[in-house]
Design a protein that fits this description.
- The chain is an alpha/beta fold and 285 residues long.
- The protein folds into 2 domains: 5-75, Arc Repressor Mutant, subunit A; 109-283, Rossmann fold, CATH 3.40.50.
- The chain contains 13 helices and 5 strands.
- It has a 5-stranded parallel sheet, with helices on both faces.
- The longest helix has 22 residues, at 97-118.
- It is globular, with a radius of gyration of 21 Å.
Length: 285
Amino acid sequence: MTGNILELITEQYHSLTRSSRKLADYILANAHDSQYMSISSLAENCGVSEASITRFCRSLGLSGYNNLKLALAKAAYVTDIGDPSDTPDTITSEDTLNSIFHKLYDSNVLSLNETMELLDETEISRAVDLISSADRVFCLGNGGSMVMAMEAWARFSIATSRFVHIEDSHMQVMNISLATDKDVILFFSYSGSTKDMEDIMRIAVERRVSVILVTHFPNSRATKYADVTLLCGYNESPLQSGSVAAKIGQLFIIECLFYVFCKRNPEVYSKARSATADAIMPKLL
């Protein structure tokens, strides 16, 4: 597909089906907000099915919903360094260093504030219940979310050896296919809507492995499989994929889980943290 996606939707509007017109009406009126939505959220807001959205995308020459989100992001004005221009923290090459630093600071603080508002004590407690009773906790994610899974594994590794991190998606599927109902998955997926994620989640359901999901979208595909869902803040445009601000909220959730976990058995985990600190000390110069 070439050209502006909004112009293409307008050109093809009269040839669209009734459900596609409902979708087109919503996107044309909410082009900015639509690029931040999961397919489930957009379907709910428009009153159409996810399958209708997929067909709509293909009728426009797009391979899928993520391509539509990216096209919507590109349809809006983009700064000379590739950021969307319609947010307060937009950075351009004309910004001074001081301005860049302050905008980045503001976006990170925004992420923390939004995540704090979304924190649910009950859900955090349920997540820690699962983690505390698990034989193994598989920290999983794909792409940029894999980095967050590694962060969780590294954080908990100073207190327990039960956390496992696996990078390769094939190895993830293989390990979960051998997991038991005494294991737990701590899965990171900002979008909550990727094929690799769904492959793992389906196997987890079959194996009766509990899933703790960290995501931004409360109605994403992944939440249908999760036993516990923890929401992180910050709206990340498709053009900002992998932004630190989106990760800050997830890091905050990891830290909350870690301290609530240690609080459950302070003597044991205090000794474990001391032991791992002593083990690392000889490696420091």
